[in-house]
Amino acid sequence: MAIGNVAPLVQAPSYSDMVEKQVGLINRQRQANLAQKLGQDEKNREFRTEQLQNVYDFDVSGLVPGHAKIFDALQKKLSNSLDPNSDDPYANSQELIADINYAKTAYGQMKRFADEGRKGQKTYSGYLLGEEIKGDDIEFNGSEESYNALSEGFDGGAFAWDGVIGGERGNRSIAGRVIDPSGAESDETNFFENPYINRPEAWFNPEIKESQNWSSYNYYEEEAGKIHPDIDGAKSWAGDKFDRFGKVRERAIKEYKRETGRGLVNEEGEGAELNDIKTFFINRAAQAWKDRFEEDVVKLTASEAKKNSNRADLLGSVSLVEPETSVESSFSQTGPGEEMKIKGKQWNVPLNRLVKDINLTEAVPKADRTEQIDNPDYVVGEEGQPETINQSVDLFGRPTNIVVNDNGTITLKGIQQKGKSAYSKDITLNLESPQDEEVISQLNQGMLNTYGINLDDLIKNLTGSSVRPQESVNEESAWSSFNQ
């Protein structure tokens, strides 16, 4: 039986290989687009320089736009003083020579700022396009957004000029505020004291970060969870990286020495020492995996941590008083009409960290929230006095403290509104009253947002149970207790 030629089996690319190829194509296209954009930015800059040259009567090719504007004003100031018929003519040649030297110095500094800064700008754009930054353990961490922000500040001259050429003939001055690469402004200073005028190469200092290719821990925080769903797989992956890549081992040795404080018999790490370092590296990577992915590790957000701190302070500052109330008894061993005293409980709770006002309108009597206004429908008579009417207004505010009473009520005290007194009286709310339900609900929400605890939970924390109105007093029992 004849057997024909059989074509060899071709292994299809894996899904991960296809994804990697596609990601590579996307990244190359992104780099090409960025290179095109940066090239266009350079052409736009050249065009703007040509436009500025048409505006100013001096060479602006070596100045950034912000400095060109300042130098133009300085030149006009000096030209004005050259005119003997001006309001500020030179009195002698010494004043003129001093101003010319000042202008030369200013122009030289401005030109140096532009020349050195453009070099830094070009280097920075190179890093954006993939050039490697020099230095061990670091890599470029800038972006197109950071490049654009730095370029805008650079064109402004790193200086917010006040718009005035100060001083006098022979002693001119330029004042303004330094603007740093982050956009922050300093107090007013002299132009020549601007650190970026004196060190323009510092303006485009590249942002850097620890290189992921060297760092066990940081690399794992970003990558391990994308590759392995469980910690054992992650540890195995870390061990493989350690065995295969010398740079990873070099970094692990540095971290091992720094964290353990141990010296190495051999700086390259050999034998038993290398096993210890590998174990150290794997444990670091495993800890990073746990910190990010293990379900039973709870990470508090800054907001949650703040609530916890506020709640601890709140509960720690509660004070308890036990006021005595006199009541007339209908039962007495000596006869009717005797007075008896009953002790109650009140918890004073400071709420001075609430930040949002609540609508207290429904809890305040209408008579206490009215204001007088001119009657818009009243026609002023001969006496010239307009008629006034009372108008109800809504009341918003927040208590600075509350009193929790054991009779099922709470009292809001020290009502404030935007830092000032909003209502001089106390407001009592009944926890069982539908009429007070809306105000209590708003108070609950404010407490949750600030302290992470609502009113009912607070009351339970203080009393061991929800406060409810007391049952009627058994007077005979109370009287017997009082006389003991």
- What does the radius of gyration come to? 39 Å
Q: How is the biggest beta sheet arranged?
A: 5 strands, antiparallel
SS strand fraction: 15-25%
How do the strands line up in the largest sheet? 6-9-14-15-18
- Termini separation comes to 120 Å
Global shape: flat
Task: Report the total helices.
Answer: 13
Uncertain stretches of 5 or more adjacent residues: 1-10, 467-484
Number of domains: 3
Total beta-strand segments: 18
Main structural class: alpha+beta
Indicate the percent of residues in helices.
40-55%
* Overall pLDDT score: 75
SSE inventory with pairings:
Elements (H helix, E strand, L loop, with lengths): L14 H41 L9 H18 L10 H36 L9 E3 L3 H12 L3 E10 L2 E9 L5 E6 L4 H4 L9 E3 L5 H12 L3 H14 L1 H15 L10 H23 L8 H15 L2 E3 L2 E5 L10 E5 L2 E5 L7 E2 L10 E5 L13 E5 L3 E2 L3 E5 L3 E5 L1 E3 L2 E4 L3 E4 L6 H15 L3 H9 L11 H9 L1
Antiparallel strand pairs: 1-5, 2-3, 3-4, 6-9, 7-8, 9-14, 10-13, 11-12, 14-15, 15-18, 16-17
